[in-house]
Amino acid sequence: MRLHSCLKLTSFMVGAAVWGSVATAQDLEQVTVVVPNPSAILYMPIAVAMGEGYFEEEGLDVEVEAVNGSGAVLQALVSGQGDIGNPGAGPFLQARNRDVPVKFIYRLNPNSSYGIVVPEDSDYQSPEDLRGLTIGVGTADGAEAAFARTIFSEAGMQEGEDYEILVVGDGGQATAGFLREDIDAYVAATNDAAILNGRGMPVRNITPAEFRVYFGNGLAAMESWLEENEETVLAFGRALVRGAEFAAQPDNIEAVIDHAAAQNPQEGEDRDFARNLVEQIVIRQTPFEPERGWGYQDLDAWQAWQDSLVSSGELDEPIEDLEAVYTNEYIDPWNEAVQQ
Questions:
Q1: How does pLDDT run across 281-338, given as a tens digit for each residue?
Q2: 244 and 107 in contact (C-beta within 8 Å)?
Q3: How is the beta sheet containing 185-189 ordered, strand by strand?
């Protein structure tokens, strides 16, 4: 029984060729992907692979279902109501710490969800350049404020002495904060940066590289499902990587928006904002080391996440074998689809 959410997104399905032969709906194998947010732009490689027919060419009928948050994504995987999920690293590691046999298979967002941004034409190049200045945040106790304090602390700067934090609200309100010169920098989530750029306030991300390793959501599946569906996993990943490669090409941005809108019509209503958001998501989803391929994961990034969660008390203790929570075994065969 597949889950029925009010946020359910209808899959885009057409008759297509499966490696040269015509496939009907009955021939296609169904795969359900569960996401924590209804925005199709956030999972655009999947939306593109659906819209461009890449999944059909692999013999798959992919359906996307939206639920409320990463916890619900993991619950759907555990209950068998979803095959592949899109959880965040924090909730995922908490589940692994409770011995939930789920495995991360693809790092969809290598870059952090947050970043310290400054006006594009400013001279600021690093957090140290913001000494004595004011940093805007959306909320006083949100994750973005903690993210900023950690970065400035690492730079030897103390709030109230070396910099000030000012609550100005989300991206739209941050635009006004910049224009009034109330703030000199802003701690932005991906959509905030898109809003700022779209409202005539182009910004640059000056977050130090070591803090960008706190990667965003990726793809995960139950270990048992991976073992029982190896060919399906390989087929899904080949189409996924083709979708990622297509979405990364600037000339394809209008088609990317169309494919996202096919899954979530609201995302086609304001195409200017959609363009800005797609551009930001492409940055967020571009691999740090392209030569390793789309989706590659490294132990250092996982270690950084675990250390942060243990330090904050969100994990009671470190996971004994951190390398067991993820796998790169599919990365090479998946990426061969775009290397030929």
A1: 998 899 988 999 999 999 999 998 898 788 767 788 999 999 999 999 999 999 997 8
A2: no
A3: 164-167, 134-137, 185-189, 114-119, 203-205
Q: Which two tokens stand for residue 245?
A: 């490669």
Query: Whole-prediction pTM value?
Result: 0.78
Evaluate whether 93 touches 301 at the Cβ level (below 8 Å).
Answer: no
Query: What number of residues does the chain have?
Result: 340
What CATH number does the domain located at 16-111+215-339 have? 3.40.190.10
Kindly state the tokens that stand for 73: 């994504």
The C-alpha atoms of residue 313 and residue 307 are separated, in whole angstroms, by 10
- Evaluate whether 112 touches 215 at the Cβ level (below 8 Å): yes
Provide the CATH number for the domain formed by 114-212 in this structure. 3.40.190.10
Hey, what long-range contacts does 315-323 have (CB within 8 A, 24 or more apart)? Answer: 315/93, 315/94, 315/97, 316/97, 317/97, 319/93, 319/96, 319/97, 323/299
Structure tokens at 234: 């390989």
Instruction: Give the pairing type, strands 164-167 and 102-106.
Output: unpaired
DSSP character for 100? -
